[in-house]
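User: Predict the structure for this protein chain, please.
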Amino acid sequence: MTIRLITALVMTSALVFNATGLSAQMKIAVANSQQIIENLPEAKGIQAQMQKAKEAAEAEFAGKAQKFQADVADYDRKKDMMSPDKKKQTEQELQQKQAELQQYNQTKTQELQQKQLELFKPIEEKVLDAIQVVAKKEGYVAVFDKANSLSNIVLYADDSLDITFKVLDYLKTAKAAAEPKTESKK
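Assistant: Here is the predicted structure, written as structure tokens:
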């Protein structure tokens, strides 16, 4: 994302300072890619799918955590009757189970994040293609993303520059399916 942003800024700067185009007006727009994605039906479907997967993983983790807590409670009840060697062995087993539980949680979280990235990739590509089509059709030389994020480079943009709803309209029409995809620059 940062590389694309720097590239866009360099390209925009080059256009602005181009000696032959000093008097020409540049059309620049902004779009909220996050808002576009959130309004697509297929994205809503993926969000629902991911929510179910997250809930299933949380339920599975809760079951494993409950079993671990039961093992700890059982140890606490029996530890005074255990030999020092058995006590040490049981404590090591419990520490191992706790580490496995933490590893399981971390692995599941990473798997869910990876799955979400994989599922959203085609949607993000579709949105990027649509932004490019709308930008070319409207004659914009640059489009900046104003999605809410820490890397948000647009500090101010007049609402008249926002093409978010034009892109959404484009994606909702049959034109999106009929028009050829543009080559995305990455």
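Confidence is low (pLDDT under 50) at residues 1-12, 14-23.
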